[in-house]
Amino acid sequence: MPEGAVHQSLPVIDVSPLMDASESGIRAVAVEIHAACTGPGFFYIRGHGVPDAVVAGARDQAARFFHLAPEVKANTKANQMHRGWHAMGGAVMEGAKKADLKEFYSMGLDLPLDHPVVAAGQKLRGPNQWPAEVPGLRPAMEAYYAEMMRVGGLLMKAIAVSLDLPRDFFAPHYTLPLQRTQAIFYPPQAPDDTDGFGVAPHTDFGCITLLWQDGSGGLEVRERQTGQWIPAPPLPGTFVINVGDLLGRWSNDRFASTPHRVVNRSGHERMSIATFHDPNFDAPIDPRALGATEPRYAPTTSGGHILECFDKAFSYRKKD
Ligand SMILES: O=C(O)CCC(=O)C(=O)O
Ligand SMILES: [Fe+2]
């Protein structure tokens, strides 16, 4: 099979024209993004300018963290702000029979406890939790997070243009974003485990997801037209981008979030780093603001929607 045949239905988009910000460059990328977001809902990007060293740093430091003893990792156990270590068994996707076979470490925008939105009690806000045993994790994840913020911002410009909006339409909604970066660790799935998933079929909660995956493979996307699961294999130097529920709702279903899942059949551990590039907590999510004349959804807020999804999916939110 020629290289590329496997992922022929998932386009690879060169986003480098977004960096010089010329009108024609943004338009050209916007056309490709529009086709991808109204089609498979998934695409790869290259030409994003994220240094290899930033990706390798985050991966290496996160791997060190995951290899610590569970009782050490538990010192940064996920809190109500969704920051820290989520042990195996804590995430159940909607409709799934079993918990996901994964553990993950989650960080977001680092706000001190005396920051006005934290002091005002806005949920999911506050400082990150860092493990003393892996001092390199913080600088590595912060550098990676900043790069995802940059690339996410570029993509949202092209998405705005692709939806016939001014290119900076989304920018005011990303001044204190709910963007979260999660390093995810999947143990090898036992060959006799036929109904387990690294991540059970789900759609992502937020606007767009930027995913780095290692070389193991295992990510699968449900093809819209056929309902078949197709692989989204690792392509060196790319990120996988997909539309989440919040952008589906905001765009009045012009863009749709596509179900995907992970099964780690590689026989060894798998790692990925998912970044959910989501707007400010109180960003109004109203299809009419994106041009819908017959809105299918009532207005909500970014934070309201994400909290609702978290409450359903994560056991740590149900305990205290
Ligand atoms: O690890 C992956 O490849 C995908 C992870 C994912 O779908 C998620 O965390 O929402
Ligand atoms: Fe996902």
From TrEMBL:
One of its GO terms (biological process) is ethylene biosynthetic process. Keywords: Ethylene biosynthesis, Iron, Metal-binding, Oxidoreductase. The keyword Iron applies. One of its GO terms (molecular function) is 2-oxoglutarate oxygenase/decarboxylase (ethylene-forming) activity. Pathway: Alkene biosynthesis; ethylene biosynthesis via 2-oxoglutarate. Pfam families: 2OG-FeII_Oxy, DIOX_N. It catalyses: L-arginine + 2-oxoglutarate + O2 = guanidine + L-glutamate 5-semialdehyde + succinate + CO2; 2-oxoglutarate + O2 + 2 H(+) = ethene + 3 CO2 + H2O. It is an enzyme of class 1 (oxidoreductase). This is 2-oxoglutarate-dependent ethylene/succinate-forming enzyme. It comes from Rhodovarius crocodyli. The lineage of its organism: Bacteria, Pseudomonadati, Pseudomonadota, Alphaproteobacteria, Acetobacterales.
